[in-house]
Fold this sequence. Notes:
Elements lengths: L16 H4 L8 H31 L3 H29 L7
Amino acid sequence: MQAATTPIPIPSPDSSWLVVRGLIPDHGPRRVLAFATFVNMLGSGIFMASAVLFFTRSVGLPLAQVALGMGIAAFVGMLAGIPVGHLADRRGRARFIC
């Protein structure tokens, strides 16, 4: 019995070198999703850096306290994602959108 294999898509000859090397997906929904993910991560990084600057310089909190608070918030968000997602699947997402 042979194992099922997924065929590797071959880019067209007129594709960009970024597509040929696998750095970005070919045109279509995968590229849109990759771009949206990039923009989301860029925004998250800018927010994190500016939040640290705000809390240390404007509010006057020590850096260790800001780091601890942001770490706890990330951990709680990570833990809450699965149960809240399960509830949203069972009861409808409209109840969980603020």
